[in-house]
């Protein structure tokens, strides 16, 4: 009964009239931040997965060796790598690819420079494979002294640290937005209490408990916050969908940065990064819960405000 | 209801009523009379738990109102029906919803509420105004609406502040009969009025406010021009 009708004309309050829009906007911001945070989470997982077990082997140049000796040595290295348990492939990067990676540092004239470039081998492995880097390095060093193995840990750590920072910022902003929403509900509820004081007094005098009056405010808050929340979430979902190409471009820039550091070329990093830029059904479900969470927050805040604010009248 | 040496004041101001002692037996009917501004409404406020005494004891339904906890108030107030002088109807609610308010707060089923409210509004002559807002009703109709809201839950105590002030004598007497009917069913009734003509038509006891205190009087004899004091001062509750 109390959900269908109200003894207090709260819907007509000037302050309350804007509440759905304010809460809708706040839910919109929250949904955007939650959506981005979930995307980042998904992205980080995909990065970890796509790079797990992958290595780059760098063979230094030995100018004393002839072409055939180098080729034989490279074959021996490839054979050793591909024979390692868990390894699924080893690809020698072409000279042109190496030049492309060096171009940001050495400029467009990199091809004209007479610089001896090391041989880079991109090694791919099963995601769950555990490769003993030290053992592999020892065996490779026996063939090519000073061989280096990079598992991209530094780059991945830096990138993940950046993503986690972004995620923490998003969580902080969501908390800030929810606090703002609660403060808005408190303000509107207190205004309503002041505006409707004469009616509240009548309700008290005919035997209404404080909880009866609180129920009127909390029902109104629930209704308007749910309405605003649904609209805000819907708009946020549309925005997230529209933002995906923009975010994809940003992520690809990051991928370029990783590749420019010359450690991950040839590992299908691009595919790993861009395929992570999306939300799973669970993430969409989490976004759908957001307006309900906001409605619950608004309802409980209104109730708390009324029960705390109603002064003892006797 | 028991008053013992009660004083009433607002804030830090002087006592507007003092040395008030009387009792109302369950099922009794009293007129509360006195000049305008004498303190009738203030005394009623004490009775309907809208204020506490500055000093003295007010005992209502066996409870000292000065020591009541906030959560105790709603249950006591549901036993009291009040007709306010300014009606205090809720402007955005229909006549039906205004009268239904005490029943809804008490948690009655909607079907029962509608049945009782419709019947009572018919009795007070507002059957054709169930869905009208108070602002569209005349002063007299609003007053009858306020009375209907006060009596709908068959309270143990009915307090009415000038309940016939905006109606003609015929309606006024009819409303008094309504109060008497309630009184016959066991409701204690206190009617605050300065309408001596109305008071003289009935033989109920009077609480008269004079010189900042309350004196109890026996009914005025039909051929007498002045009420006969029942007690020298209203200081002994047992005399009432």
Structural overview:
The complex is a heterodimer of chains A (about 325) and B (about 240). Chain A is of the alpha+beta class and about 325 residues long. The model of chain A is unreliable at about 260-265 (pLDDT under 50). Chain A is about 70% helix and about 5% strand. In chain A, strands 2-3-1-4 form a 4-stranded antiparallel sheet, covered by helices on one side. Chain A is built from 10 helices and 4 strands; from the N terminus they run H-H-E-H-E-H-E-H-E-H-H-H-H-H. In chain A, helix 2 (about 20-50) runs antiparallel to helix 10 (about 280-310), helix 6 (about 155-195) packs antiparallel against helix 8 and helix 6 (about 155-195) packs parallel to helix 10 (about 280-310). Chain A folds into 2 domains: about 10-50 and about 155-314, no CATH class; about 55-150, Alpha-Beta Plaits, CATH 3.30.70. Chain A has helices at about 15, 20-50, 65-80, 95-105, 135-145, 155-195, 195-205, 210-260, 270-275, 280-310, and strands spanning about 55-60, 85-90, 120-125, 150. The longest helix of chain A is centred in the last third of the chain and has 51 residues, at about 210-260. Chain B is an alpha/beta fold and about 240 residues long. Helix content of chain B is about 30%, strand content about 20%. A 6-stranded mixed sheet of chain B has the order 6-7-8-3-9-10, sandwiched between helices. Chain B has a 4-stranded antiparallel sheet with strand order 2-1-4-5, with helices on one face. Mean pLDDT of chain B is about 85; it is low at about 225-240. The interface of A and B includes residues 5, 199, 208, 209 and 212 of A.
């Amino acid at each position: 009964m109390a959900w269908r009708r109200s003894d207090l004309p709260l819907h007509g309050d000037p302050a309350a009239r804007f509440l759905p829009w304010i809460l809708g906007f706040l839910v919109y911001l929250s949904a955007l931040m939650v959506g981005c945070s979930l995307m980042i989470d998904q992205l980080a997982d995909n990065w970890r997965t796509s790079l797990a077990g992958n290595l780059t082997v760098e063979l230094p140049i030995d100018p004393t060796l002839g072409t055939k000796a180098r080729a034989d040595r490279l074959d021996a290295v490839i054979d050793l790598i591909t024979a390692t348990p868990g390894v699924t492939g080893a690809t020698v990067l072409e000279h042109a690819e190496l030049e492309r990676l060096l171009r940001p540092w050495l400029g467009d004239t990199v091809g004209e420079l007479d610089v001896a470039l090391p041989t880079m081998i991109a090694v791919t492995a099963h995601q769950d494979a555990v490769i003993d880097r030290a053992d592999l390095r020892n065996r490779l060093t026996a063939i090519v002294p000073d061989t280096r193995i990079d598992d991209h840990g530094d780059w991945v750590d830096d990138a993940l640290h950046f993503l986690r920072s972004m995620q923490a910022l998003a969580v902080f902003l969501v908390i800030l937005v929810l606090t703002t929403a609660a403060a808005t509900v408190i303000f509107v509820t207190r205004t309503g209490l002041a505006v409707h004081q004469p009616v509240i007094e009548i309700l008290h005098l005919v035997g209404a408990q404080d909880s009866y009056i609180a129920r009127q405010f909390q029902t109104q808050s629930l209704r308007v916050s749910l309405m605003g929340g649904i609209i805000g979430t819907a708009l946020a979902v549309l925005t997230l969908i529209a933002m995906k190409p923009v975010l994809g471009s940003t992520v690809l820039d990051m991928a370029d940065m990783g590749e420019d550091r010359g450690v991950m070329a040839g590992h299908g990093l691009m595919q790993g990064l861009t395929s992570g830029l999306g939300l799973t059904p669970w993430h969409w479900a989490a976004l759908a819960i957001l307006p309900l969470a906001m409605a619950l927050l608004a309802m409980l805040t209104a109730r708390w405000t009324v029960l705390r604010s109603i002064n003892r009248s006797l | 209801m028991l008053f013992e040496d009660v004083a009433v004041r607002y804030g830090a101001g002087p006592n507007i009523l003092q040395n008030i002692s009387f009792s109302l037996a369950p099922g009794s009917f009293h007129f509360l009379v006195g000049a305008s501004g004498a303190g009738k409404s203030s005394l009623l406020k004490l009775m309907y738990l809208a204020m506490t005494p500055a000093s003295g004891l007010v005992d209502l339904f066996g409870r000292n109102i000065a020591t009541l906890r906030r959560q105790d108030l709603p249950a006591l107030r549901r036993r009291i029906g009040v007709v306010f002088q300014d009606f205090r109807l809720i402007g955005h609610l229909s006549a039906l919803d205004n009268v239904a308010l005490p029943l809804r707060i008490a948690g009655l089923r909607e079907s029962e509420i509608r049945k009782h409210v419709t019947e009572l509004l018919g009795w007070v002559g507002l059957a054709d105004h169930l869905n009208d807002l108070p602002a569209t009703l005349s002063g007299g109709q609003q007053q009858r609406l306020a009375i209907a809201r006060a009596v709908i839950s068959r309270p143990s105590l009915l307090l009415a502040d000038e309940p016939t002030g905006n109606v003609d004598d015929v309606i006024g007497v009819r409303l008094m009969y309504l109060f008497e009917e309630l009184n016959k069913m066991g409701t204690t009734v206190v009617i605050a009025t300065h309408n001596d003509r109305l008071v003289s038509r009935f033989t109920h006891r009077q609480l008269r406010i004079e010189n900042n205190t309350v004196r109890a009087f026996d009914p005025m004899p039909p051929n007498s021009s002045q009420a006969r004091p029942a007690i020298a001062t209203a200081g002994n509750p047992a005399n009432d």
